[in-house]
Target: Probable glucose-6-phosphate isomerase
Amino acid sequence: MHLDIGNALAGIARPGVSRDSLDRLDDCVARAHERIERGVEEREFGYAALALPETTAAAEIERAVAPLADSEAVLTVGIGGSALGAATVSAALGRGDADAYVLDNVDPRRANELLAALPLSETAVHVVSRSGTTAETLANFLVVREAMADAGVDWTERTVVTTGEDGPLRALADEHGLPALDVPEGVPGRFSVLSSVGLVPAAIQGHDLDGLLAGGRAGMDALAPSLYECPAYGYGAACHALEVRGATTNVLMPYAERLEYFAEWFAQLWAESLGKDGLGQTPVRALGATDQHSQLQLYRAGRRDKHVTLVRPRERPERAIPETGIEGLSYLGGSDLGTLLDAEFEATEASLAAAGLPNVRIEIDALDAESLGRLLYDAEAACVLAGELMGVSTFTQPAVEWGKRAARGLLGGGDFEEAEAVAGKERLVIE
Amino acid sequence: MHLDIGNALAGIARPGVSRDSLDRLDDCVARAHERIERGVEEREFGYAALALPETTAAAEIERAVAPLADSEAVLTVGIGGSALGAATVSAALGRGDADAYVLDNVDPRRANELLAALPLSETAVHVVSRSGTTAETLANFLVVREAMADAGVDWTERTVVTTGEDGPLRALADEHGLPALDVPEGVPGRFSVLSSVGLVPAAIQGHDLDGLLAGGRAGMDALAPSLYECPAYGYGAACHALEVRGATTNVLMPYAERLEYFAEWFAQLWAESLGKDGLGQTPVRALGATDQHSQLQLYRAGRRDKHVTLVRPRERPERAIPETGIEGLSYLGGSDLGTLLDAEFEATEASLAAAGLPNVRIEIDALDAESLGRLLYDAEAACVLAGELMGVSTFTQPAVEWGKRAARGLLGGGDFEEAEAVAGKERLVIE
Model:
């Protein structure tokens, strides 16, 4: 991963961080690195995620999905950290040998449409839930299983499960002899992309799991006790420094359609890990060049409470723009869509700097397995570092429990006082 | 549109707005309404958008696309306001008689994949650019035109154009006798969804344009000089009141997959219209229930700088969750995915209120043409009102010009000093 934080410096941007401040922050980075290194070595809760490139066994995943290797489609049934990693990898690396779909919502319209469109007898289903009780995931799985049965497909031959040591999904896998993989110990869902949670669909698609893990390992090897020597820490430290100086929003703007899901994945990683104690940058998902025509006005002329992270691959496939005699367009003809997109990238970066808005450039060599594995790992390491610098509980998500209990209560799944609060809603209706 | 701002009140939320403050603000709303009404009547620049339900001729659009009515697919070639409206309508109303695609980026990989997958001889192409010179749109059009020619398809028989009175696209339409529609006078792109700009693909898909415009007209008829009597103004006033009290981020979170693009469209409307003079809420696109497992931790436990706008249709199709004997899941069996989704909606709304985070509920009757037209119109009217209350130049987007000139200069399209700034970038590289 190649990082350039020049446009986040105090001389360029407001808020911005001076080189002196970065030097001082680097002492904290060194100490945080020691803490992270110890956590990784001892496989402590959360930190264990940064060991996945070494602990994940690609061969085991490939063996588990071997019976499904001829599938035309692979459907991930999960939600949040149990779905976004897989979706990110599949979107970034392309179709491969199978189309990838995700059922990560409980919208009946979407379920009906997707199940009507899928070639069920040729579809592999990957059900992911650590507890085996996640309401959305299990409801969707029950629906998918029934649709397969209705279509005369033996769902037990088309399903692979990734779950914890016990719980309903584990019991189901045991009962029906389904291939079952483990959610790795001590790894929160949003940090689990480089495990079976994120890699099963990629394996069915025939993508290069070893390459993904090698990229992750390169990120692991690059961790160092200085933000100047480690792009992951450089990014995490820059985000932290900008946040405490007022950039409370972090816009992640990849210039590659295949990285649109990466921005979603990053948004979960950042929001759920760092959104605590009244702190945490709000991640905003954008896409270049498209959002130049939608969001750039706000970034340049709105509040000084943001920084933009621009991401691009250094290599792109070719697509020539045909020569044209149309008046005023001849400068486009003979160029290439990739050249145009890169010009837009550089123009937008410069336009943000010209407006004094801090921005950061991340580049990867190409949209391949190894570069992607590195990008994912480095984003996780950046997040862990930012959490250390802020002193928050990076690996938990206590604030989401309230709503889960309320929903369960509303559905008759037990007595929960949170469900009673729903009925007491204050109303001011205008219609 | 049904609006409930009870959870934005000061007793519930921080920031929150008291009923007294709303009463005082209502005087400003009454004055702003007069200004808006005059602008609409006189078809002033920008305000003319709020007259579209009366000025758009559905029959003219349907006549223009009649030769393409048997298309299997419709491809919008545009960007920003020339693409998002069409994409929003097509996504919300579903496939109809043709699959809808958008080419609104210049990623060569995406263009290559899409053009390889499209049935070109059965694809209608809608090219949209007011000036007829938008670099991304014209580059994509040149690429699509060539792909059709290479496939032996007569592109002149498959293309419809929406553009301004003159410019390269108008000239091209004249030269080749293409059906050509007008971008409506005085209507910025992001406010143009209820015109040919947004409705051509829907017409080819066989959707109910009259219903969409009737919904818009209902919104127009509902404009009134009080926030308590007009849900559009109620929403715009609530957002304004929350913004000046500290909610500088507006999370739009529909609970319906088909409204995911609506959140994109809204984000452009809000950011480009109100992001001025160091003001303007940052729109954040979310999706319920999925993002409960991604963003909710931040919303409930992060900075008090946000409010959440929850959106849902009151009707959903059915999809029963099968009964199950699996331990711990019996409460789900026999329910319906829609019931589950609505329970999650209400639980999340209550969980935000319990954490003191302001939130607003918007409901539409159903995902049909009339309700959608009303929703789009009301969002625009809310935005115009918020702009009046803030005193910004709602209908312009001056801050995006810098980058356009820089990109054009980089591509050899003329001498622009902005292009020189790109080469002078400050660097601090870490790799």
Notes: Chain A has two domains: 2-36+213-390, 50-207. Residues 2-36+213-390 of chain A form a domain with the Rossmann fold fold (CATH 3.40.50.10490). The first strand of chain A starts at residue 2 and ends at 4.
